[in-house]
Design goal:
This protein is α+β, with helices and mostly antiparallel strands. The protein has helices at 27-122, 148-160; strands spanning 127-134, 138-145, 164-174, 184-192. The longest helix has 96 residues, at 27-122.
């Protein structure tokens, strides 16, 4: 019968002594270290791969966002150019309207002034106008009055209109050519007020 010593107990030698039991070799620890190293290396490779995938995904996202930003910038530049062109046209039209309004005002200014003087003379008793001149700064006119008081009333009414800075009488004298009634010739010089317009006409 053959016996197998599974417990590693040494057999007795011929002298009655047991042989020393065989010590386990260190091959198990070495294999475990290699396995752990392989696992760590594999995990490291996986982590590096995942990191590369994340970086690539972020790069792609940033690239798409950059392209969108470039397109939006181009769109806004086109909108800005159209806005500036429209604003330029609007400014040009506004200048034209302003010039037209100024021309209309310049044309209507003398007419308004003449109407103002005519209304003032008509509202003053016993005075008539004969001539009137306007050099752009001073309005001068001559006329007839039945009394010096009528001339004074006309001057006061002209001042009340607010169209003139000063109203001065140049001369007044009795007209000897009129025999039926007492008549006086007069000449007035009125310095115009540049700020006056028909809209701010004062009521006499």
């Amino acid at each position: 019968m053959i016996r197998i010593n599974l417990l590693g107990v040494p057999k007795k030698t011929r002298g009655g002594r047991r042989a020393a039991a065989a010590l386990p070799s260190g091959g198990g620890e070495g294999s475990s270290t290699v396995v752990l190293g392989l696992i760590f290396a594999g995990a490291l490779v996986v982590l590096i791969g995942l990191a590369q995938m994340w970086v690539q995904r972020e790069h792609d996202t940033l690239e798409k966002n950059l392209q969108k930003a470039v397109l939006e910038n181009q769109r806004l530049a086109d909108v800005k150019a159209k806005y500036e062109a429209s604003k330029k046209k609007a400014d040009m039209y506004e200048r034209r309207v302003r010039v037209i309004d100024e021309l209309k005002s310049a044309q209507s200014g003398p007419v308004n002034l003449l109407n103002l003087v005519a209304d003032t003379v008509n509202s003053t008793d016993a005075v008539w106008l004969e001539t009137m001149t306007n050099d752009g700064k001073t309005l001068s006119f001559t006329g007839m009055a039945l009394s010096p008081n009528s001339v004074a009333d006309l001057m006061a009414n002209l001042r009340k209109t607010g169209a003139f800075k000063t109203v001065e009488i140049k001369e007044t004298l009795q007209d000897a050519s009129v025999k039926e009634v007492q008549a006086f010739k007069f000449e007035l010089n009125c310095e115009m007020d540049p700020s006056f317009s028909g809209k701010n006409r004062k009521q006499s």
